[in-house]
Structures are given as structure tokens and as C-alpha cells.
Design a protein that fits this description.
By secondary structure, this protein is α+β, with helices and mostly antiparallel strands. The protein is about 45% helix and about 20% strand. The chain has 9 helices and 5 strands. It has a 5-stranded mixed beta sheet. Strand 3 and strand 4 form a beta hairpin. Helix 5 runs parallel beside helix 6 and helix 6 packs antiparallel against helix 7.
């Protein structure tokens, strides 16, 4: 970067002020001396190289819902990357599904017309590994935050398949009770 580049970025009406021109030239001169300091500003491009304390600060800055400093680094980065999308699209199925997938990657949101339910209802379907009570609790909290106000959770279906032809486990989680159906 040469000394004229930052000055050339100024709008024409500001170039007439000597103090702003001087600041622009001084900044250009400093930046051209040491380009390594500019690379440190690219924090969103290099999040995997950041310290956990820096990630925690970024999560605080972006108001990431249900972020915890105890999360694995990959989950932290994923939640921070998705947070802007979540905030600008709250109340949509896309935001709800994206927020939930940050916690449970194999989760799917089915709207009422996809399964023949009542209008403005939806279901959550998880296929694969069973969830912990903490994950289930977090899912319910995220649903309350990201769902459309008029929409209501109709069911939370957790299924786990076994490779054998005999066993099939299916569970429906309701806030108060868990219904398990064992078919074998």
C-alpha cells in the first residue's frame, strides 16, 4: 500500500481539509511500513486460529444465544458465524432450523403442511444419536427464541435406528413426558 491509497479513498468534499489529508497520509505511511498488523484485523476469516478468549468476546459482541465458553472450539465458531443470519431472520423456519442445527446437526423442522398437521404447527425430527437432557432443554429454549410468534411446536420426535432388521426405537419428547415405542 502506498502513501496515496488511503487519501484516494476520501470523498472529494473531505480532501480539501488539510488535517484530514494529513491523517490519511500518516495512516497510509504507517500501514505501508508494517502490513502484518493489518492481517490481525481479519479475525472473521481466521477464527480457527483465534484464542478461546477472543472467540468468547466475539460471541458476546454478536449476542450469540446459548453460547458457552465450555463448548468445543468448532461449535463456538459455528455459532458465531451463524449469529448474524439468526438475528436478521428471526421468526423464519430457516433461522429456527439453522439455530437448532448449531446444537443438534441432524435435526429437521417439518411444517404442518408437510406432515398433515394443524395450521401454524411444526415438528422437530432428530434421527440418529439420542440427545442429552441439556441438549433437549436447549432445543426448547431456541424454539421459543427463533420460532414465529404464531407458530407452535406440535412434537419433538427422536428416532434411533439400529442396523439389525429387528430393532427400531422411536421416541416423542413432550415437555412433561417422554413416550417411547419399542418395535422389535
Amino acid at each position: 500500500m502506498n502513501k496515496d491509497e488511503i487519501y484516494s479513498l476520501l470523498p472529494e468534499n473531505l480532501k480539501k481539509y488539510k488535517n484530514l489529508s494529513g491523517i490519511a497520509y500518516a495512516m497510509s505511511e504507517q500501514v505501508s511500513k508494517d502490513n502484518s498488523s493489518v492481517d490481525s484485523l481479519k479475525i472473521y476469516l481466521n477464527m480457527k486460529n483465534l484464542d478461546d478468549k477472543v472467540l468468547d468476546q466475539l460471541a458476546w459482541q454478536w449476542n450469540v444465544e446459548f453460547y458457552s465458553s465450555e463448548l468445543p472450539k468448532s461449535k463456538k465458531i459455528e455459532m458465531i458465524n451463524r449469529s448474524y443470519f439468526h438475528h436478521i431472520t428471526k421468526g423464519t423456519v430457516g433461522a429456527l432450523e439453522s439455530a437448532l442445527k448449531a446444537i443438534v446437526s441432524n435435526l429437521e423442522v417439518k411444517e404442518w403442511y408437510e406432515y398433515g398437521g394443524n395450521p401454524f404447527m411444526f415438528r422437530l425430527i432428530v434421527e440418529g444419536d439420542m440427545l442429552t437432557e441439556e441438549e433437549i432443554s436447549t432445543v426448547y429454549k431456541l424454539v421459543d427464541i427463533y420460532k414465529n410468534v404464531r407458530s407452535h411446536l406440535d412434537g419433538f420426535i427422536i428416532t434411533q435406528k439400529n442396523d439389525s432388521l429387528v430393532n427400531f426405537i422411536n421416541g416423542i419428547h413432550d415437555h412433561k413426558k417422554v413416550i417411547n415405542k419399542f418395535i422389535g
